[in-house]
Amino acid sequence: MFTGIVEEIGTVLRIDRKAKSFNVHIQAEKILEDIHPGDSISVNGVCLTATEITRSTFQADVMPETFNVTSLSMLAPGSKVNLERAIAANGRFGGHFVSGHVDGTGTLISKKSMENALYMVIQIPEKFQVFVMEKGSIAIDGTSLTIFETDGEKITISLVPHTQAETILAEKNIGDPVNIEFDMFGKYIYHMLESRKEIKTGITMDKLLENGFIG
Predict the structure, then answer these.
(1) Is 167:174 a contact under the CB 8 Å cutoff?
(2) What is the pLDDT of residue 202?
(3) Cα(141)–Cα(70) distance, integer angstroms
(4) According to the model, what pLDDT value does residue 190 have?
């Protein structure tokens, strides 16, 4: 489990590719202070398992499902990546619950500076638009963000200077894919209602829509 508060930007040093999977070597510093083989690390919002660790690098395997569903398949030597360690039990919780299980990818369609903020508009795949809600939480490339506005098909996010400086999001170009993870509580509620249509409390999909719990 992660918070979506990126700890540092790492650099891909090497990728050993197969047809639909690969092993990646990533250079890092801060997150290597207390991780061990088998620990979970969020790489651009994707939960990966550290397999081998040195003083300045770690390795992780990207499986076929992750290769197909996320943007990690586009990584190359020199790529910058957002990194976060799993939540420590005694740590502060500054973002929102992020599992690292990416739902899919969106596409950056516009970006513009607005005083000290950077506005980014992202196209959301149709099958995920039910999870979009204005002022709702979303993780973009592993970064915990708030949806600034939405028309259902697109969302606008606003990056504060700190997020611009400490993550890779500000360097994204128009047309680039981004990994998206929607709020897990909204997904649980949606799945429960879809599978049972109406539960004992009388909550229905229509009632959630009417009261703004889902977009």
Answers:
(1) no
(2) 60
(3) 10
(4) 79
Alpha-carbon distance of 37 to 61, in angstroms, equals 12
Q: What angle (nearest 5°) sits at the alpha carbon of residue 56, between those of residues 85 and 36?
A: 45
Cβ-contact 39, 50 below 8 angstroms: yes
Question: What are the CA-CA distances from residue 138 to residues 141, 156, 172 (Å)?
Answer: 10, 11, 17
Q: What is the bridge-based pairing of β-strands 137-140 and 177-182? A: antiparallel
Q: Which of 1, 35, 6, 4 is nearest to 167 (CA)?
A: 6
The residues facing 143 across adjacent strands are 140
Nearest to 103 by CA among 49, 47, 146: 47
Closest alpha carbon to 3 in 77, 75, 83? 83
Q: Residue 41 has which token pair?
A: 């690390």
Contacts of 170-173 with CB under 8 Å at 24 or more apart are 170/118, 171/80, 172/108, 172/111, 172/120, 173/108
Q: What is the pLDDT of residue 186?
A: 79
pLDDT digits (tens, 9 = 90+) for 4-42: 999 999 999 999 999 999 999 999 999 999 999 999 999
The pair of structure tokens assigned to 15 is 């990728």
Cα-Cα-Cα-Cα dihedral sign, residues 167, 158, 94, 41: negative
Cα separation, 24 vs 106, whole angstroms: 23
